[in-house]
Write a structure and sequence with these properties.
Elements lengths: L1 H24 L15 E4 L2 E4 L4 E7 L2 E6 L5 H10 L5 E4 L4 E4 L5 H38 L5 H34 L2
Antiparallel strand pairs: 1-2, 3-4, 4-6, 5-6
Length: 185
């Protein structure tokens, strides 16, 4: 029972790190990355579809993303969707392919992005601590119901805290990496 509780806490903490990495992949760094366009939805015959399901996305150079629609008739819809995406990107089309230049970030914008990244890290830490709290609550109820001893409870809480510390440190490392990427000129 203790092992199951700690395993569940670990899974929840791993999910928090995965979610953090996913969120950080969407933060624009001045470098081209197709993950910037993950949330862009295109009206495809009346159905909002992810851009990656109606076009081929690629990064031919460090500051350029190309979007090649599978149907030429989608070019205007894709351009419109990119404009509306609040990413601050300007697509340009030559009738065959859409090119999106990724502008270099200003110093002020970089600092704003670092603040955003730190807030996403705090969200991940909160999720990790919530997983710890839920595990500890469950362990305390097991002890209260006499399913585990007080010593088992203390050992388990210590293990849970070590797990929490490990994942909080990991979240900070992930964020430090992103900050470094953001501050590169």
């Amino acid at each position: 029972m203790i092992k199951d509780t700690l395993d569940e806490a670990k899974k929840a903490m791993e999910k928090a790190i995965v979610a953090l990495r996913r969120e950080l992949s969407k933060v624009r760094t001045g470098r081209a990355s197709v993950s910037l366009l993950d949330d862009v939805r295109v009206d495809y015959y009346g159905t909002p579809s992810p851009l990656s399901q109606v076009a081929t996305l690629s990064v031919p150079e460090a500051r350029m993303i190309t979007v090649q629609p599978w149907e030429k008739s989608l070019l205007p819809e894709i351009e419109k969707a990119i404009y509306k995406s609040d990413l601050g990107l300007t697509p340009s089309s030559d009738g065959e392919i859409i090119r999106i230049g990724i502008p270099a970030l200003t110093e002020e914008r970089r600092k704003e992005m670092v603040k955003l990244v730190k807030s996403k890290c705090e969200d991940a830490r909160i999720s990790i601590r919530n997983a710890r709290r839920e595990a500890n609550d469950l362990l305390k109820s097991l002890e209260k119901d006499k399913e585990i001893t007080e010593d088992d409870l203390k050992r388990s809480e210590k293990s849970c805290q070590e797990l929490t510390d490990k994942f909080v440190k990991l979240s900070e490392e992930v964020v430090a990496e992103k900050e470094q990427e953001l501050m590169e000129v």
